[in-house]
UniProtKB/TrEMBL annotation:
Keyword tags: Membrane, Transmembrane, Transmembrane helix
Bilayer-crossing regions: 12-33, 39-61, 73-98, 104-121, 133-154, 166-185, 206-224, 230-247, 254-276
Record's protein name: Prenyltransferase
Originating organism: Paenimyroides aestuarii
Origin: domain of life: Bacteria
């Protein structure tokens, strides 16, 4: 009985990860941080759009090419289609409750998402397969959606603090993707020319550590500096260094899909925890 419960939990956990719910929690956590640090009221509309939009977009990117080629769909793919359809509907409804500027920003990032999968013009190449560009597109989308969208929808000005926040999110996403690329090294097509394929695993780890320097010190350039942020970000830096040190092509999928993608969630939880100390 206990063994059956363990099997059922493992299946559910795999489904939770593969259906993109965990990565959606990560982006949503970053949005909540934007509400807090930019003194914005909580917006259920923006939160719903980001969460369900992430579920739909990630599933679309991962599974659309597979579903198109399949003649028979597995139960998992059927469940992904159902969840993605529901997520798309909720995200679409949320979209119409945004202000005009936020809608235009959403359309821009949605357009990038489409180009990420669908070949450009008559070419058979999409943004995902363009050598070296993938990590920047994903980082731009994460930073833009989690930082700019809540601010634009609240009709707030994009000042220097927002630029620094955007830069931090961009760098953080870039770092997490690099850890993913180390983990996926043996699976990635050599034509993708990922960073580990180009410069090697060790130099990629050095690059991550180097990127952590501006990620950390950008905090001190903000006008609205929070007293505990130096410690919160320092904890986050040590966690990322830990994940980077143990990153390896032979690690299981849980290493990145769960643990590494939990970094934004951890960041948010640390902010909440230190806010009540």
């Amino acid at each position: 009985m206990q063994q059956q419960s363990t099997i059922n939990f493992t299946r559910f956990f795999d489904w939770y990860l593969q259906a993109s719910f965990h990565v959606a929690l990560a982006t949503t956590a970053l949005v909540q941080m934007t509400f807090y640090f930019c003194y914005l009221s909580f917006s259920a509309t923006v939160t719903a759009l980001v969460f369900f939009g992430t579920v739909f977009s990630y599933n679309f990117i991962k599974y659309a090419p597979i579903i198109v080629k399949r003649k028979r769909l597995t139960p998992f793919l059927k469940s992904v289609i159902a969840i993605s359809a529901i997520s798309m509907l909720i995200a679409a409804i949320s979209f119409f409750y945004l202000n005009f500027n936020a809608q235009m920003l959403t359309v821009f990032f949605a357009f990038l998402c489409v180009l990420y999968v669908i070949p450009v013009a008559k070419s058979k190449t999409n943004l995902r397969n363009l050598a070296g560009i993938k990590i920047y597109i994903v980082s731009l989308c994460w930073a833009g959606v989690t930082t700019l969208l809540p601010i634009v929808n609240a009709d707030q000005m994009i000042g220097t603090d927002v630029v620094f926040k955007f830069s931090q999110r961009f760098i953080l996403t870039l770092i997490l993707i690099l850890i993913f690329e180390i983990n996926d090294l043996k699976y990635d097509d050599i034509r993708l020319k990922t960073v580990p394929q180009t410069i090697g695993v060790l130099k990629t780890k050095y690059l991550i550590v180097l990127l952590l320097i501006p990620f950390y010190f950008l905090e001190f350039l903000k006008v609205n500096y929070y007293g505990n942020q130096w410690l919160i970000n320092l904890i986050l830096v040590f966690v990322i260094v830990f994940f980077t040190y143990f990153a390896h092509p032979n690690r299981t999928k849980y290493y990145t899909l769960f643990w590494v993608e939990s970094v934004p969630i951890l960041w948010f939880l640390l902010v909440v925890l230190f806010n009540y100390i």
